[in-house]
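Notebook entry, structure prediction.
Reason for the run: the old model in the group folder had no record of what sequence produced it. Starting over properly, with the input documented here first.
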Amino acid sequence: TAGTSYACISIADAAVRLRLDGTDPSGTVGFLATNGQELILYGEDTLNDIIFFADTSTDAVLDIAYGRDNSGRHGISING
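New structure, fully documented this time:
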């Protein structure tokens, strides 16, 4: 949605790999985020460029909440 600049993503059931530069991750390339981690994305550019890839044969579930953040931050914060 236009104006969305924040997302909180909870990863469940399996690990994923991700990239924030708009290029495709693979089974060996990209940041590894595991089951139980929470990602917080800041900036419309970050939300537009993130790409996920299943790291295992088990499907991961991504629960996502979107919103607006007016702090001017860009990038990702990882918890868990």
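Summary: The two ends are 28 Å apart (CA to CA).
The old model has been moved to the deprecated folder.
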